[in-house]
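Tutorial, part two.
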Amino acid sequence: MTGLVVAMDGPSGSGKSSASRGVAKALGLRYLDTGAMYRAMTWWVLHHGIDPADAATVAARAAEPGISSGTDPDGPTIHVDGVDVAGPIREAVVTAAVSAVAAVPEVRTRLVALQRQIIGAGDIVVEGRDIGSVVAPDATLKVYLTASAEARARRRHAELSGTTPTGTTVEAQRAAMARRDEADSTRKTDPLSMAAGAVELDTTALTLDEVIAEVLRLVKERT
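Running the prediction step on this input gives:
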């Protein structure tokens, strides 16, 4: 599998994280969650009292935080300036602000450079929103995961049930995801889109095992 890079893109709730980790474990590859890196930057911005909507200040300070991502699919880690932020970056306040921070060109330039450094010579599954189109356009395999709005909302509600405010409904989650989809797909720098040459995979009616099996089939086909 030397040099293999699998790019897994798609919106929130499409099943990227679970499928990407499953594929990485099945193939003995490393795993990188680029979304966690943008959340880590957002956590740092909030932690330092910076308004996420203040793009100029976010841009000016984007180079300051030390962000480190572990690549073990059995236990991926994310640290900011040596602090484990795996839990805090999933909190609602970060989720609400991450699109604004991720839209800042200086933030994207910095994190894309870090992501490419981690990818290095390959042997990795990378998930995000611009992997196949920007970060690793020459990836061995590019997959774009989709799912119905209802399925995505149910998955994300279940995933974040311990970090969202009590009483948050699936419908509220659906509305929040729609707002983030709009922000991510219309930003000027590296918008969310399906990369040229990517295989679109609708996961609405598929189990996690079925999604992983299909990606593994595609990998075998490409290699």
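Strands lie at 5-9, 30-33, 67-69, 78-80, 83-84, 124-128, 141-146, 199-202. In part three we will examine how such features are distributed along the chain.
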